[in-house]
Amino acid sequence: MGHRIAVIAGDGVGKEVVPEGIKVIRSLGLPLDFEELPWGCEHHARTGRMMPEDGLATLARYDAIYLGAIGWPTVPDHVSLWECLLPIRKTFEQYVNLRPVRLPPGIRSPLAGRGSADIDMLFVRENTEGEYSGTGGRVHVGTEAELAVEVPVFTRRAVERCARYAFERARERRGRLVSVTKSNASRFAYVLWDEVVAALARDFPEVQVERVHVDAMAARMVLRPDTIDVVVGSNLFADILTDLGAAIQGSLGLAASANLSVEGRGPSMFEPVHGSAPDIAGQGRANPIGAVWSAALMLRHLGHPAEADPIERAIDAVCRDGRPLTGDLGGTASTSEVGDAIVAAAR
Ligand code: IPM
Ligand code: MN
To answer: pTM for the complete prediction?
Structure first.
């Protein structure tokens, strides 16, 4: 039996890049069944909701979710995200957001003198709580006395399971883990984080762990990216650092992600990092590589490494060749031309 994939192309360039990922997977002849769910901001315009009331129950029946982008100027971002993307991540306990930051061969990093041998990091972002807990409120709205509180929430359980995953990946890779916090200014949450990581480190004697504050980490990624292997960080810190990572790896259009329900309590979700990009949407100019790379992460998660590997190699081949690339990478190719080139290279 093949796997059933829920496809939420969503908004903006999501609708342009997702078909490229599906095209690449189909070209490999895998028995995957893609079912499109027309959710997102247009659904909101029609129905007042980002997804149907039973949307999460519907998604629970699939083996994975392949998502393009959520968000469009017609719906406030905090509404579109809190009614679709974030509930999916939380409900299915997709507690790891895995983001490879790797500079493909042939792509120029904005970091002078750095090539693909220098930039190969793996970010493990806590994906269910922290600064995205949704805890807080506003009172005296619209008055001089207005007050807004947004409370980051950190639980030992969530930090532990995410950090454990990061240690495991570090053990398989180059054996180095950076834990990013801000436990000098934050006296409670990130001190708990540090304690949990220190305790786990005893179970992974083969992994060398460093504690680095987020401000110093931003500089380190720019100055000494070659010293970074696996990184674990909170929801917001790793969100910010992976946009920096995407820039360092050559383009936000290349960046891939996997929202992993590690214990399989629900489907995992695979999405490019770039978002709906209203400025270029509808023009066939979006870079599909982040979406295709995310599709490769999905195949690996579903137990098809023999198909995931060739897709990643095909991405590298297309980047090395340098000809069929989109504008963000200095090329002139269209979204579907890049998809076609990956299909050809993956064969
Ligand atoms: C991402 C995005 C989301 C996030 C937004 C759209 C809520 O920036 O996936 O990185 O912050 O997680
Ligand atoms: Mn982000």
So the answer is: 0.98
67 lines ligand 1 (CB under 6 A): no
Dihedral sign for Cα 120, 71, 235, 164, please: negative
- Which atom of ligand 1 is closest in space to residue 89's alpha carbon? 12
End-to-end CA, the chain: 24
pLDDT digits (tens, 9 = 90+) for 47-106: 999 999 999 999 999 999 999 999 999 999 999 999 999 999 999 999 999 999 999 999
For tokens 């790379």, name the residue.
293
d(CA 116, CA 328) in angstroms, rounded, equals: 18
Distances (CA, A) of 103 to 94, 120, 264, 272, 295: 26, 7, 30, 16, 18
How many whole angstroms separate alpha carbon 243 and alpha carbon 165? 21
Give, in order, the Cα–Cα distances in Å from 114 to each of 89, 226, 293. 34, 9, 22
